[in-house]
């Protein structure tokens, strides 16, 4: 189990940021990702691994609409 | 078109001459009062008090309207006014999105005060002609056109019997009549509505601009709340302003250098960032369709669902195929976000103009979602056609979409039938029926007249005439205060439910759109956080309407380092830009705090205005359950996993073996209670009583404790 | 197409061109008001001026920018609404503005600077 934006989410092996975004269907263009408080640049989404128990933040940057 | 004949039929009813003066730091310091009952035209001073307390734009509109009406005034009384005001920053050309006008009137839908924000060139040209606001009162005997020549200093009321009513024709005719040469057309802007505004309650206003490249008139809409209906009721066919000589310094800003610097910084930011971010310059707001569909926020079938497999059929790529994309598609000079997209050579397939080819404004997100997905329709060609006809007939696409979706659900539930609809088979997805409904509105015929009453009055009618159950209709009728919902599903965001429910004019998202912060990011976990967001964002966004700015360049483009700032959701750098350009124009010295105070004054004043008109208390912030959670079994079961897990997590409920009805009920009780708690928290944060009335001390603190304001509040406390 | 071409290697960054330009355009020797700008970094010169690419033409909301019969991109001042969109969007950063003026300005390939350049770093190409 990991946390995504403070809510529980099923963990699986080899979970990368890209995979997580796919699973959550997070397609918004303007987001910021942090794993355990560490900022992950977009270039690393394919490779950055998420471990079981990690606290992930995927912040969508808009209060738009 | 026989323009000579149309022109010859004009009869001068009144003329007023004035000396056009220079603006002083963003203000003309006078406003134009026109009464079409008495054919009276006069200049009124804009006082220091007005500037101090109301800033401009929406603030001025509210103040003038407040003084014009009594609690007994109805929208169609001659005393009701339409006030158009661009705000002190309005008309600058350097900063993107600075050509907005704010329109204020008593609404036929809500009975209370309405404000609507619109692009096009009218507001800036009005101001350059020497007027901070135009106040229109009275009712003409016969159809009139008002003409303002801002260079010559002449204002006329002319009887105008021959012009078409529908905007795409009318506005072109007026350009022919009032432009001295074809080149002169760029100096003209027209406010108008269309034939449907005579028959429906959500008629809207078109504000034009002349597209010099495509040699066509373009129309931007003050859509919400039925102000077009008010204009038609006044028998004002159109208001025309002509001003030649737009330059970058006509506001006479206190600090032109600062304005230029901030504007250029923003142009650079858009140049560098838009391709990577929202791609507004090529797609306009259509980019939102896919996002809303992906996040279960795109209204489908009267807000039952938030997504649909066919959503991609009405997403941006389909629109780009249809667009004639220009590099300067701003609705005012200098808007490099350039979202006002165009469709050229569109051949109309239905209605009175069938077979004609038109240049038409492209549908925006709200329209696509409203007349499209929310009605179960996923055909771009239908949406283009419906958008064109809504514009030319003067119909608000949002109210039309939300009302039609509601009627479709009523139809599918047997609450209304073919006999009642006059043969229209109003199933979800039946685009021919939806289109016919729209044409009926323009003709003032059949079921179109009923649909034109809007959701609230339809509900009442169906209960009264057809014995429908009020409870179900209240659950699925997506309106608050009588205004139809804008096109976002708020079920999974309590804060957004509040954003819609507690908005002063009714459920429009221009006060707050907080779905991502709340639902996705989970950044507002406590009621205190939620209330703070529902204080800050509505106040901030209100401010844009006080000064004459567009919301989109605030957050549909962000600085590259925005994510690293302390409060990314606020886009701190852009807020500072706004402070800077306000100060650069007016020579004042506000900061981010004072900016919010300026808004709070006006916002609370508008709240008290609602109370004065007999609305504005807590009961008027009640929202339909469709906006809160699943109303029907079908809706619940479509997202069963989500709801089941919430019941387990939040209520510790064992969902195994429970019927959907039981679960629906438990979820509903929970969510409805949450909404009430939210309302409590927000009222408190805003300095209001639990009944939603601004406390005296709040008004005093804000300096909006004018005697007449205090009097209204004291009576209701 | 007439335009000013640059050879940055030959430029000694003496700044003559800037002064000639501002003098011609604005009757004042002030490099801030020149349509050509010389910058130096690590002993190398960088010359910024219009390449007459014409990107700004379609960008102008007032249709104030056009290409003349010699291929030079020019501004019709009377139509310019002073939005400075062109300044922000110029791919060469060669559309300039100065807060003394409400319109932007740019190189019109008049060639006066090239005549005065002592090192042959700029010249007019027809
Ligand atoms: S962003 Fe769009 S709506 Fe806003 S001012 Fe620019 S063109 Fe107009």
Q: Give the rounded overall mean pLDDT of chain B.
A: 97
How many discrete structural domains of chain A? 1
CATH class of chain A: Alpha Beta
The secondary structure category of chain A is mainly beta
Biggest sheet of chain B: strands side by side, in what order? 1-9-8-13-10-11-12
CATH architecture of the largest domain in chain B: 4-Layer Sandwich
Overall helicity of chain B? 40-55%
Poorly predicted segments of chain B: none
Number of strands of chain A: 7
- Form type of chain B: globular
Q: Low-confidence segments of chain A, ≥5 residues, pLDDT <50?
A: none
Name of the CATH superfamily of chain A: Beta-grasp domain
Oligomer: heterotrimer
What Rg of chain A do the Cα atoms give?
A: 11 Å
Main sheet makeup of chain A: 5 strands, mixed
How would you describe the overall organization of this protein?
- The complex is a heterotrimer of chains A (65), B (717) and C (126).
- With 65 residues, chain A is mainly beta.
- Chain A has a single domain, classed as Beta-grasp domain (Ubiquitin-like (UB roll), Roll), CATH 3.10.20.
- Chain A contains one helix and seven strands.
- Chain A has one helix at 17-24, and strands at residues 2-4, 7-9, 15-16, 31-35, 38-40, 49-50, 55-60.
- In chain A, strands 2-1-7-4-5 form a five-stranded mixed sheet, with no helix packed on it. In chain A, strands 3-6 form a two-stranded antiparallel ribbon.
- The longest helix of chain A is centred in the first third of the chain and has 8 residues, at 17-24.
- Chain A starts with a strand and ends in a 5-residue tail after the last strand.
- The relative contact order of chain A is 0.33.
- Chain B has 717 residues and is α+β, with helices and mostly antiparallel strands.
- Chain B folds into three domains: 3-242, 4-Layer Sandwich (Aldehyde Ferredoxin Oxidoreductase,  A, domain 1); 278-484, Aldehyde Ferredoxin Oxidoreductase Protein, subunit A, domain 2; 500-557 and 590-716, Aldehyde Ferredoxin Oxidoreductase Protein, subunit A, domain 3.
- Chain B is built from 28 helices and 17 strands.
- Chain B has a seven-stranded mixed sheet with strand order 1-9-8-13-10-11-12.
- In chain B, α11 (365-372) packs parallel to α13, α18 (494-501) crosses α26 (660-686) and α20 packs across α26 (660-686).
- The longest helix of chain B is centred in the C-terminal third of the chain and has 27 residues, at 660-686.
- Chain B is globular, with a radius of gyration of 24 Å.
- With 126 residues, chain C is an alpha+beta fold.
- Chain C has a single domain (3-120), classed as Alpha-Beta Plaits, CATH 3.30.70.
- Chain C is 21% helix and 19% strand.
- Chain C contains four helices and six strands, in the order βαββαββααβ.
- Chain C has a two-stranded antiparallel sheet with strand order 1-6.
- Chain C is globular, with a radius of gyration of 14 Å.
- The termini of chain C are close together.
- The model of chain C has no long low-confidence stretch (mean pLDDT 96).
- Chains in contact: A-B, B-C.
- Chain A binds chain B through residues 5-7, 25-30, 32, 57-65, and chain B through 276-278, 288, 290-291, 294-295, 488, 509, 512-517, 520-523, 525, 533, 537, 555-556, 558, 562-563, 568-570.
- The structure holds iron/sulfur cluster.
- The site of iron/sulfur cluster has 14 residues of chain B, from α21.
